């Protein structure tokens, strides 16, 4: 749309990215702590300077607008630092799943084609080095963030970089964060979220969880999950302090809650059980976060004060591709609640035509919160947009009061702990095993993890591989949580009239069920 000439001067006023937000925090809260990670504590002013330095490092390594930066390591304050430095230079930043197998890391390297890779030696270095050795691209600059003799080292490069701010404002719609989501079609894809989407996500996290500048958020969940990013960025937006741990350890979490007077956190249910056992004698003071030493008021992984809107009315609907939770009960309504600002929902048929209230159809979304698309997936991007709406691959309907009701995934999804696993991805892996003739992967109910992954396998003639062989095959090629825990053999698998595996019949015959549903 052509702009009126008299308004042209204001075109330079409106761009506002995540890097601009940090710059403002450094001005308005210079002496307040922004991040805490072990012995590292940095105020907003100090953090701003570090991000300036890291942006300089990225530029020196050849990172330009639209280039990619990959993080291969565990949680660290440097993840947010690298995200913000990428924002400064207009790059796209991806925090990868550090539990990926060598094959999965190699896939991401080829698919994402990063100009710079930040990697970690401790605990995960063997896999990172193996994937690096097999990578075909000569363009990658590898920077070790936790100290690796003989390698480019993060802090050494930072020390020689320019601390002055030097960046051009970016358009709010520019992609910034890439998050690899479980493979709907058997191949994971990196959903690209814009600066604007992340700022809206931060606002939603801040409002829903009652985060303010006095808050301390324990970044104890994996930062490649938007659920964790919502709280982390919400705390950053509010001017609170983010407290990082590399990975989940129940005693370390208890110590951090006590030492840092944590007010908000992301803690999965199995970890809470371990923390209760470790604090059976009440030796750790967790009163800043929980009502008592046994954490009896714990209800959901997003831990927050009892008066927070999300605690008063829990529930909602969302996915990575639409900026996390974007229809929520704390905004009103029933079922999965009502949409937050900056996103629209429509329930439509396969042609993208809205269906009548009460009828089930695909949930479609539009607005600045929705992703910019998947990286390097032109066919999928074309398929997922219809008439200006994003297809979520989820089914829903409108309640009589207009609320959104989530019916379930169009493609079956298994929920194990906090992880989403799509059967197609596990099945594709199992089909590369020499003993598999046919396979169907299902979710079976589990009292601790919600679901376990079970593989029903038809073995090839003469094949006699034991169950452990198929489990090990997946463990070597995928993140461990994706592997089947249970393997059962069958002579044949039931099929529909069209020739596809009848998943409902497999569920009925082999104990499947408990798939995630809300509303």
UniProtKB/TrEMBL annotation:
Pfam families: AMP-binding (PF00501), AMP-binding_C (PF13193). InterPro entries: AMP-bd_C (IPR025110), AMP-bd_C_sf (IPR045851), AMP-dep_synth/lig_dom (IPR000873), ANL_N_sf (IPR042099), ATP-dep_AMP-bd_enzyme (IPR050237). Residues 23-375 form the AMP-dependent synthetase/ligase domain. Residues 425-499 form the AMP-binding enzyme C-terminal domain. It comes from the Bacteria. Gene3D superfamilies: 3.30.300.30, N-terminal domain of ligase-like (3.40.50.12780). PANTHER family: LONG-CHAIN-FATTY-ACID--COA LIGASE, NONRIBOSOMAL PEPTIDE SYNTHASE PES1 (EUROFUNG)-RELATED. This is Acyl-CoA synthetase. It comes from Sphingomonas olei. The lineage of its organism: Bacteria, Pseudomonadati, Pseudomonadota, Alphaproteobacteria, Sphingomonadales.
């Amino acid at each position: 749309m052509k702009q009126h000439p008299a308004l042209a001067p204001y075109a330079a006023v409106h761009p506002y990215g995540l890097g601009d937000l940090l710059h403002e925090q450094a001005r308005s809260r210079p002496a307040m702590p922004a991040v805490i990670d072990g012995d590292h504590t940095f105020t907003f002013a100090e953090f701003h300077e570090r991000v300036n330095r890291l942006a300089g490092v990225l530029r020196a390594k050849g990172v330009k607008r639209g280039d990619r930066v990959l993080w291969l390591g565990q949680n660290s304050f440097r993840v947010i630092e690298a995200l913000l430095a990428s924002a400064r230079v207009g790059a796209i930043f991806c925090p990868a799943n550090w539990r990926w197998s060598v094959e999965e890391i190699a896939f991401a390297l080829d698919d994402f084609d990063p100009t710079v890779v930040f990697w970690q030696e401790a605990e995960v270095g063997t896999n990172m080095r193996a994937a690096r050795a097999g990578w075909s691209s000569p363009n990658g600059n590898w920077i070790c963030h936790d100290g690796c003799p003989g390698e480019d080292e993060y802090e050494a490069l930072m020390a020689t970089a320019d601390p002055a701010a030097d960046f051009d404002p970016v358009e709010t719609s520019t992609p910034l964060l890439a998050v690899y989501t479980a493979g709907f079609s058997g191949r994971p894809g990196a959903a690209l979220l814009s600066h604007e989407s992340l700022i809206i996500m931060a606002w939603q996290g801040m409002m829903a969880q009652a985060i303010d500048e006095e808050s301390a958020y324990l970044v104890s969940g994996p930062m490649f999950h938007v659920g964790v990013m919502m709280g982390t960025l919400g705390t950053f937006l509010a001017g609170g302090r983010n407290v990082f741990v590399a990975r989940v350890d129940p005693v370390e979490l208890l110590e951090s809650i006590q030492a840092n007077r944590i007010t908000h956190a992301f803690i999965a249910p199995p970890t809470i059980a371990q923390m209760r056992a470790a604090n059976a004698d009440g030796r750790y003071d967790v009163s800043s976060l929980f009502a008592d030493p046994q954490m009896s008021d714990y209800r959901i992984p997003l831990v927050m004060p009892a008066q927070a809107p999300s605690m008063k009315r829990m529930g909602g609907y969302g996915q990575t591709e639409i900026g996390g939770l974007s229809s929520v009960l704390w905004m009103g309504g029933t079922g999965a609640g009502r949409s937050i600002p900056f996103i629209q929902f429509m329930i439509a048929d396969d042609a993208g035509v809205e269906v009548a209230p009460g009828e089930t159809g695909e949930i479609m979304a539009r607005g600045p919160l929705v992703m910019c698309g998947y990286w390097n997936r032109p066919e999928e991007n074309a398929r997922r947009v219809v008439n200006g709406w994003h297809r979520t691959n989820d089914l829903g309907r409108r309640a009589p009061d207009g609320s959104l009701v989530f019916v379930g995934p169009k493609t079956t999804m298994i929920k194990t702990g906090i992880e989403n696993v799509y059967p197609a991805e596990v099945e594709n892996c199992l089909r590369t095993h020499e003993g598999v003739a046919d396979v169907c992967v299902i979710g079976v109910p589990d009292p601790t993890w919600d679901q376990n992954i079970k593989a029903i396998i038809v073995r090839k003639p003469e094949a006699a591989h034991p169950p452990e062989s198929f489990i090990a095959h997946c463990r070597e090629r995928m993140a461990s949580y994706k592997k089947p825990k249970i393997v059962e053999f069958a002579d044949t698998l039931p099929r529909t009239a069209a020739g596809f595996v009848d998943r409902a019949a497999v569920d009925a015959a082999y104990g499947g069920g408990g798939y995630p549903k809300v509303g």
